[in-house]
Amino acid sequence: MHTPHSPRPADPLDLLELDSMLTPDERAVRDAVRTFCDRRVEPHIAEWFEQGEIEDIRGLTKELGELGLLGMHLEGYGCAGMSAVDYGLACLELEATDSGLRSLVSVQGSLAMYAIHAFGSEEQKTEWLPRLAAGTAIGCFGLTEPDSGSDPGSMRTTARRDGGGTSRSSGAESGGDWILDGRKMWITNGSVADVAVVWALTEDGVRGFVVPTDTPGFSAPAIKHKMSLRASVTSELVLDSIRLPGSAVLPEVRGLRGPLSCLNEARYGIAWGAMGAARSSFRAALAYAGDRIQFGRPISSFQLTQAKLTDMALELAKGTLLAFHLGRTKDDRGLHPEQVSYGKLNNTRAALDICRTARTVLGANGISLEYPVIRHANNLESILTYEGTVEMHTLMIGQALTGQAAFR
């Protein structure tokens, strides 16, 4: 005979009880990241956003490394070796604080570290991965160019062999040095990085290179005047005939499969992270609606406000469920690129809509940095575009649906 449970009081931030889907270990990861963000970053993030810089970014990166968040889903070399769901939960909590914080972790772990871990030589892995995992070194990922965003195959950065150099490599890739020339644009962490993974066109197709940023001819001027991702370092990479040894090339990959597989890792994290920004904005709107008195009543008592809150709650829950599903699937059997596109496309669009709706609930206060909403909304304008635009992810899903490529 079924015995009915006593009804629990509803949690307005989790009406579907999604928290029950987590294992105790996953909750511990989530709580540890949330506690760190609340203690270390939340008190300062609005000021950092307004100033356009993170105070003591190296110190913060080292703390993130000590917490095990850098390359946390990778195995060995000082990496934590945690699950895809663990990594997703961390991205959600990081971006609930600020997209710039999640970008710092995502670019370090899912782009720079993943590229070296998946495609690098043993020498490259042992030299860089432990330092990057510990946060004592910072990495960046150079793919996008001023005239080559959604079409990386048209990149103009080149790498050519020069047999007259003094290569320090003795491996299979040691037939002389490499000379790199070109520009990369919109590169997170660029101006503070110790190492850059740079993709360049060679006579053998697109290849990746591990570039120490103290290499002569390398510079990374910061990009200023941003109105989005202001609490994030964004730079141009300038490669003026920089000379690298033969051992600098990533030996295990050729072609665009290399950078695109890295982007899929990062896009997966964005599907979770966007829901963090959305949750923060929804929470702010819900609390504000209960406190704000108009016409003698809290605005949460009005039908139109309740409709907005309901719509936000629905989209937040659906997006979080999608992220959970992708995480479980990734841990179980891996993800297809179009599945990652589902998450990135849906959740960034939904998160931006939630933030815009939350802004209307806050009225004029919605544009103040005293509340997180406008900061999240501004950040998500970038998240909507980077790691694949709305148009590109739409066409990736369209190709999977129809079997027809419509990119050109």
From TrEMBL:
Stretches assigned to the Acyl-CoA dehydrogenase/oxidase N-terminal domain: 23-135
Pathway given in the UniProt record: Amino-acid metabolism; tryptophan metabolism; Amino-acid metabolism; lysine degradation
Keywords attached to this entry: FAD, Flavoprotein, Oxidoreductase, Transit peptide
Top-rank taxon: Bacteria
Occurrences of domain Acyl-CoA dehydrogenase/oxidase C-terminal (ranges): 254-401
Family classification: Belongs to the acyl-CoA dehydrogenase family.
Designated name of the protein: glutaryl-CoA dehydrogenase (ETF)
